Protein: Glycosyltransferase
Amino acid sequence: MNTSNPNLHILLFPFLAHGHIIPTIDMAKLFATKGVKSTIVTTPLNASLISKAIEKSKPHHHNVIQIQTIEFPCEEAGLPKGCENMDSVPSQDLFLAFFHATSLLQKPFEELLLEQHPHCVIADAFYSWATDSASKFGIPRIVFHDSFLVPCLPGEIKMTRKDVPAFITNKENSTEFVKLLEDAKEAQARSYGVVVNSFYELENVYADFYKNEFGRKAWPIGPVSLCNKDTGEKANRAKETTIDEFECLKWLDTKKPNSVVYVSFGSLISMPDSQLREIALSLEISGQHFIWLVKKNEKDGAEWLPKGFEKRMEGKGLIIRGWAPQILILEHQAVGAFVTHCGWNSTLEAVAAGVPMITWPIVAEQFFNEKLVTEVLEIGVPVEAVKGVRLEGECVGCDALEKALKRVMIGEEAEEMRNKVKVLAQLAKQAVEENGSSYIAFNALIQELVSLSLSR
Ligand code: UDP
Structure:
């Protein structure tokens, strides 16, 4: 479908972290398929990564996806120069400074709104101020969000205090972060609606609850990652991979179906060496083949691994130090399970690829995503010991992961989970195809924006 108003112009403003930038690029590509022009607003260092990802997509996308940069006030916020993405923040103590720096983007963002006057702003949930900025210029602001899942929703979700992230329970130490989340919630309630990277069939109870209970407009348009069709597009998503994608696929081609475990904790989490050693041991003891993404580089040597590990694992395991072509790995038939921190993008990508999960949440809403995977959808199992290990310096012993690996890779329970997730993968694909639920929701969103622009 092409829209009746090809002049529609959307400003997309992702938070400065790969988990936010990647789905925003996908969303821009989706708009491009409808002939709708979009501009991604970001900082200079992120802009170069985004433009490479767009170059890899279809040529007709290039004409309708623009990138607009605004300077990032690193030094003003007490951050090192060039620290423009959450993954380059040198220590956790500086996370709040990073959030503070993003709040300083309000002024240049408003200047941009004045100059470009788009028909709509789709800004990240973390930019609570974007609702007021957009309304100053009479522009509707839509929030871009992960899943619908929030606690206290229908269904048999049991959350104990231990399941709830420290930033919620420990208000004293994290008041600023809690305030940020509260501001985001409040701004979301006042915004025009929410675009969600999920699909109706995955969490219909929650989608209905969200719309009916809160009375808000919401468009589930995902999984947006499914807009990437060829290998180049799937590999180049806002960061260059450390391994050549074809080399990685060739390695996987030598393995039997469902015989490889993919291990990754997303774009931000660096595990301490003691924890990495335990993970290595569980992979070795389990006897499973694996691809393991580690936030290390060649300079870090191999001291963080058990002695002789790489030699013993030759041919059995592939360690990627840096950035992996995640979607390509998940979609390969050799991959039989995904050890994940339950970041929403990773969770949804695993669903879309039909891969069962071993859940190991670390922060934020990852604990809720784990519940969806293990208790509601029953397409994964938790690493049980993770619940008790929240304190710095402690780590999850190797037997806990090994046990979970066996549950997901071998036996009847494993088979059941695999079958369930394959059905969901099919539903995900249908959702984004012509007349699927996400396809219809996306068209409805565009139509609504067209009507709004005509009435202004
Ligand atoms: N990703 C990737 N290669 C990597 C690590 C991450 O392609 O080596 C992608 C992954 O496919 C996902 C995103 O980065 O799209 C991570 O987002 P998620 O919400 O899962 O976690 P976050 O990094 O935000 O914690």
